[in-house]
User: What shape does this take?
Amino acid sequence: MPMLEMTNRKNLLLLVQLRWLAVIGQIVTILVVHWGMGIALPLVPMAAIVLLLIILNVTTLLRLRDQRGIAHAELFIELLLDVAALTAQLYLSGGAANPFVLLYVLQIMLGATLLDTRSTWVLVAFAGVGYLALMAFNRPLAVPDGDADAFFALHVQGSFIAFALTTCLLVLFITRINRNLRERDAHLADMHRQAAEEDHIVRIGLLASGAAHELGTPLATLSVILGDWRRMPVFRKDPELTQDIVEMQAQLDRCKQIVSGILISSGEARGEGTIRTTVRDFVDAVVLEWRASRTPATFDYDNVFAPDAAIISDAALKQVLFNLFDNALEASPSWMGLSVSRQEDKLVIAVKDAGPGFRPEMLESFGKPYQSSKNRPGSGLGLFLVVNAVRKLGGMVSARNNDGRGAAVTLTLPLAALSGAGFDG
Assistant: This one.
């Protein structure tokens, strides 16, 4: 559900709560004035208005159970009905002379906070017309004969009660409405930031794909040259040079495989080229492939994921783990650890190292581009891509420094996303 509609839903619920208070307040006021003060009121029509407010609230609560979005127009109509109900009750209880006419201000302030400018002015005009109408048309209160000064004092007291009630409700509900609006603004700001990061990722992907295409030609040329060198007598006579050429060709073939993998990953459609496997088998295969070309002095691997679950193997998910492993190895060539576990319906992967750990400012901005301790151009993109790729799956990445030495990066991924079609490009 869009954040704007969610905010409108919360604000409509606040209006329902305010209306319940209005219903209770009207009932108490009618009872006190009619029986406590001896001022006769038209109980039947006033009770009918209270009943209509209750029906409106019940209808609104049923509307809130519906998952359809709530527009500003619905809030506007609800406020108009509240103003109409207030006007009707004031008409039956003295009109503009009733001290509770001040409650118009509460309705207008709510409209100014919840509605757009045009709707707010329409609400102001509606309330203004109602106020003017009450000055000319109303049912006068049947005040018992008595001291006029006593009645005036009673009117002043009623005005204070109306003032206190209006100000308290304004502070209570405007504060809560502003909190809803701040949450909406914070969510929108976060969405803008995510959109900017995703745009950055797209540009990185385009550059990577373009670079892979450009590297294809020189790598092919080097492969041909090395093949020619292996057949030349001057190199064939020297076993040491021959071995070096073989090693160079092996490394060149690995570079070509990496370039091919970039092109395949950037061009494959979602769900294409994937292999059905399980969590344990997938992580085991990733670790085995990674260790075939990396040589950490000590690698502690603990895969205790149980019960096992079926997922879809994806090149992007594998690259996420490769990035984490490479960062840990670079920070700590002597030791790194990997643990794989299950927490309910989530896969938890923790990569640890014995390096210097993250600086405090890096932990604060973890996952942002170009935040790295490597002090070289372009560093920090690996973790940035990891965080955004995991976020696409509905997971999260956290980082912390160990109490002693080293750091740990933990991935938490929902199994439902992994058992689907994998990553979005």
DSSP finds 13 helices and seven strands in the chain. The beta strands are 275-278, 299-303, 310-313, 336-343, 346-353, 396-401, 407-414. The first strand starts at residue 275 and ends at 278.
